[in-house]
Amino acid sequence: MTTTARSHADAPRVAAPNPHDFLGIDALLSDDERLIRDTVRAFVRERVLPQIGEWFEHHTFPRTMAKELGDLGLLGMHLQGYGCAGTSAVAYGLACLELEAGDSGFRSFVSVQGSLAMFAISAHGSEEQKQTWLPRLAAGDAIGCFGLTEPDFGSDPGGMRTSARRDGGDYVLNGTKTWITNGGIADVAIVWARADPDDGPRSGSIRGFVVPTDTRGFSTRNIERKLSLRASVTSELILDEVRVPASAMLPGAEGLRGPLSCLNEARYGIVWGSLGAARACYESALAYARTREQFGKRIAAFQITQEKLVAMMLEINKGLLTALHIGRLKDRGEAHPAHVSFGKLNNVREALAICREARTILGASGITLDYPVIRHANNLESVLTYEGTSEIHTLILGQAITGESAF
Ligand code: TGC
Ligand code: FAD
Prior knowledge:
Elements: H1 31-57, H2 64-71, H3 89-102, H4 104-124, H5 127-139, E1 144-147, E2 163-167, E3 170-181, E4 188-194, E5 206-212, E6 218-222, E7 234-245, E8 249-254, H6 257-291, E9 293-294, E10 297-298, H7 303-331, H8 337-361, H9 373-385, H10 390-402
Parallel strand pairs: 1-4
Antiparallel strand pairs: 2-3, 3-7, 4-5, 5-8, 6-7, 9-10
Helix pairs in contact: 1-3, 3-4, 3-6, 4-5, 4-6, 6-7, 6-8, 6-9, 7-8, 8-9, 8-10
The structure holds 3-thiaglutaryl-CoA and flavin-adenine dinucleotide.
């Protein structure tokens, strides 16, 4: 039997793949999803990209942006009621993607406000807590933060020492939280504490408290000299005999399950968001390679450059399919936390590799803020660590497939 090689002329006439959406994933989205995606993309192009280099350089997140993000309906957008937009998980993921194509600091702001602070109140709060805080947080009139990590308990929050001592009709909070996004600009903090500290370490019940940041004894100290996520405020929260009424406790969250349920939401946003940073770096490297000449040729014509660009394009498309699949599972109520760990581990790891590789294509130009690549690569170092390090997500997945806990 003889075989005849098919030429391109024999192939069915289909459009050549788009280098910016190679697998045509756009076609898998609904009109509503594309509209939200395009709206956020335009916002990032007009309001974030022109100034992000300066904000990153000056280590600042402009507080006025909270209101703009609120006006767009992006804060707590996947939550229902109380001024929240009530979108699908996929739409929320697409917004995270576009925001992080601008800068991880913007996606972080939206993650912490919507998926951590607001979700904690929405899922576990009392009616009074919801009515007091959710509309203001959704509008961007108030800023929220989420205090879980402590100086001695990062990956292992179950060991936390922050305490909530019952005193008559009040609780009195003592302890220190650290690495808290938005801490220094927040109006309200969700503080996780051990509510019966006299029972000893690891016992007792972890509870969440809704703490207005102007409560006496509550103070913050910003963490300076960060070389990553510079367009984001990261702070210590110091709680020194902070007295709150018992009604400040989140009634629906008891044990470590409470804060971890919030992390599922924020981790999900990162599954998408990290690919925004990766896409921005791929596009920057592709554009640069098509114009930069060395040895009398465009560097895009060198095989090694092409290999790098192709590897980036493959991982972005694979990552997007993963994100979309997990998003559709989430919208059907079928996403397990381990699915989210799959996406967070894979997509952040690949996004960071893409940003670093993109930096090499830009040569020396790649190390400046004139191009986005080193900024994104530096940001993703934080993203790899927060919301569960890559090692912790590996162990979550290891446990899911072997049944053995190796923490
Ligand atoms: P473990 O015994 O496994 O679990 C304790 C209880 O929690 C339940 N659970 C979950 N519930 C909901 N969602 C999840 N993903 C859950 N994972 C576990 C579990 O069923 C159990 O429930 P119950 O009722 O039986 O008590 O707890 P462990 O102490 O062994 O820890 C497990 C581990 C290591 C996975 C967990 O501690 C962990 O995820 N560590 C990583 C910590 C982390 O991710 N911190 C993030 C801080 S916030 C942040 O980084 C914000 S950055 C924001 C930004 O700027 O974008
Ligand atoms: P550690 O837990 O000390 O880990 C150090 C190393 O040991 C890591 O490589 C880790 O993977 C590894 N390791 C730990 N345990 C194991 C194990 N069992 N097996 C194998 N390896 C292990 N937290 C909040 O609560 N709220 C926030 O808003 C917030 N925002 C943040 C913003 C930024 C910019 C950053 C950088 C962090 C933020 N965090 C926040 C904290 C973040 O969640 C923690 O940094 C993270 O959980 C890791 O904790 P750690 O830094 O103490 O590292």
